Amino acid sequence: MRIYLIGYMGCGKSTIGRKIAALMGISFVDLDKYIEERYFKSVPAIFAEEGEERFREKERVALHEVSEFEDVIVGTGGGAPCFFDNMEMMNKNGVTIYLAPDIQVLASRLIKSKTERPLIAGKSHDELILFIESALQRRSPFYEKAKIIIRGENNLDPQLVIDKIKQLDIKN
Ligand code: S3P
């Protein structure tokens, strides 16, 4: 069992991922944290010192490494599915779940945690809405390749996600 949670920054991958992992008795890996521990550097520092391109390479390596783990839920960074063949790789290796709350919800969550997220640092609420809209236009085609899509659920019930995973298992 390997599950990947994907979606834009602020969609709740880590929060819900931890809850699902606890209920299913499997472990949760936050891909950004894994990158920070593996490379001894914070994500903002990698962006600032090495640039986004290098970050994406490190992210790809990290994603391949965690994809060797068994019985795990991986909370990926918001950009991870949109670079290289990462999305195909995840679909080949496990169940991908796209969490897609409303843009307003994403923005109100992100406004509180901008400093840890280099791509949105310093943006006002209105700038953030426009930024998210345009990012989602580019990213949605990747996100929508997920095997399970959960839209508009802003306070996601972990059991609902687990039920969807079980339904998918039955269908296959
Ligand atoms: C990014 C999302 C971040 C992190 C990095 C880039 C993105 O992860 O990987 O700042 O490109 O959307 P979260 O989605 O966990 O915030």
Question: What's a concise summary of this model?
Answer:
This protein is an alpha/beta fold. It has helices at 13-24, 31-39, 43-50, 52-66, 86-93, 103-110, 125-143, 158-171, and strands at residues 2-6, 27-30, 72-75, 95-100, 148-151.
Write the H/E string, N to C: EHEHHHEHEHHEH
Average the pLDDT over all residues and give the rounded result: 94
- CA radius of gyration is 15 Å
- The separation of the N and C termini measures 14 Å
Number of helices: 8
Helix content: 40-55%
Q: Which molecules other than protein and nucleic acid are bound?
A: shikimate-3-phosphate
Q: Which residue ranges are poorly predicted, with pLDDT under 50 across at least 5 consecutive positions?
A: none
Share of residues in strands = 5-15%
Structural class: alpha/beta
Multimeric state: single chain
Judging from the principal axes of the Cα atoms, what is the shape?
A: globular
What strand order characterises the main sheet?
A: 2-3-1-4-5
Task: Please summarize the sheet with the most strands.
Answer: 5 strands, parallel
Structure summary, number of beta strands = 5
